[in-house]
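Note to self: user wants both folds in one dump. Writing first protein now.
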Amino acid sequence: MVSSAAATVKQYLDELPADRRAVVAKVRAAVNKAMPKGYEEGTLWGMIAWTIPLERYPDTYNKQPLAYVALAAQKNNYSLYLMGVYADKKQETALNAAYKALGKKPDMGKSCVRFKAVEDLPLDAIASLIAGIGVEDYIAMQEKIRSKKG
C-alpha cells in the first residue's frame, strides 16, 4: 500500500503524476458531489478521506475522525474505501448489483474497491450509496456495530 505524507488534499493531488491525478480528481469530484452535509474532506492515513470531525463525534476507537469514504492512488491501482458498504449489507448488495449491470466483476475487499480506471467503477451507483448515509445514520451504524463487539 502506498501512503502519502501530504497534510492537505491539494498536497496529495500535487504529488501525483498528471494521469493519475486526473483519475483521482474525477472520482473525488463524484464523491464530493454526493457527500451528505456534515462530513469533512481532508487527509487521513495517507489518503484523501471524508470523515465525521472529532468535534461532532469524539468517541472513536482510535481517537481519529470517523472515516466514511477514502480515496487513494496505490502503486498498481486506485482504492476507494466505502465504509458504508462494509457496515450495511444492503449497500454491499446494491454495489454488487451495480457492477453486474456494468458488466464488470468488482475487485473488492471488505470496504475497499480497487480499480485501474474510472470506467471500472459504477460511479453513479457509488455516488448514490455515498449520498444515502447521512452523518447521524452513520454514527448510529457505528454505535450499533460497536455495541455488538463490546
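First done. Writing the second protein, which came from a different request thread.
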Amino acid sequence: MLLQQGLLTLPNGELAAVAREVANQAVAGPAPVTCPLLDIERDACRVYAQRPVACRTYGFYVQRDKGLYCPDILQQVEGSEREDVV
C-alpha cells in the first residue's frame, strides 16, 4: 500500500520510465536485474520514502565504481575479503 502511494505521487514521465524498465526487464529474461524504481541518472530511488520493507531492512548494496553487487559482495564477505560490509 505504501509503495502504491509512492507510485501515485510520481509525475507521469517518471511513472512511464518505471513501466518501460519493467517491460524491458521482462523481455530481457534472466539477466541481472536493476530495480525499476532506481533512477539511474540521479542514482536514487524514485519512491525512497515509500520503499518496500525489503529495501528498508536489507537495502540494495552496490558500489558500481568497484563493480560490487549483492551476490559478489556476499561471496567476498563470506571469504573474509570485505571487512567493511556488515
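Dump finished. Worth passing along: The chain has four helices and two strands.
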